């Protein structure tokens, strides 16, 4: 798949996320997400900051965080989340077609970030995922392909076979982990909430690796 195709998918996911953000109530925005200690709105703040934050402020925050990328990322997300939800949605639309390509993980990583964090938001709110099959396959290939730095430790998918029940997708050899593409994506990225949706003799091992 070409970078142009991926960029089109990313732009559409950002616009869809903007629509979702505008539809949420203050109580929903304050709900705890699947992503560590972040609220739904802080997850949105992270996704906005990933594409809209100016390089200067982001670098300064990294320095102040002792060059700990995860700590700086959390601070940047929290800072961005102080903005009104409508403003965050507007920033997502304004930067929907931003061509920035992250190092190492590339556009496939960027698309995966949007899809995974989209579920970090939707699952706790009981909202349907509405993930697109072609985009989900891109993310699944990325997560088991060895380039998902920061998404999946290399040993997590090693020696396991993953099979999607709703997509024409499978990967790996070994004990089986089976489920919907959405549940596989979330399980691979360490979301405990999705592990109960998986079946097969490899799930126990995956659960151990996630823990």
From TrEMBL:
InterPro entries: DinB/YfiT-like (IPR034660), Maleyloyr_isom (IPR017517), MDMPI_metal-binding (IPR024344). Residues 11-95 form the Mycothiol-dependent maleylpyruvate isomerase metal-binding domain. One of its GO terms (molecular function) is metal ion binding. Gene3D superfamilies: dinb family like domain (1.20.120.450). NCBIfam families: maleylpyruvate isomerase family mycothiol-dependent enzyme. This is Uncharacterized protein (TIGR03083 family). It comes from Actinoplanes xinjiangensis.
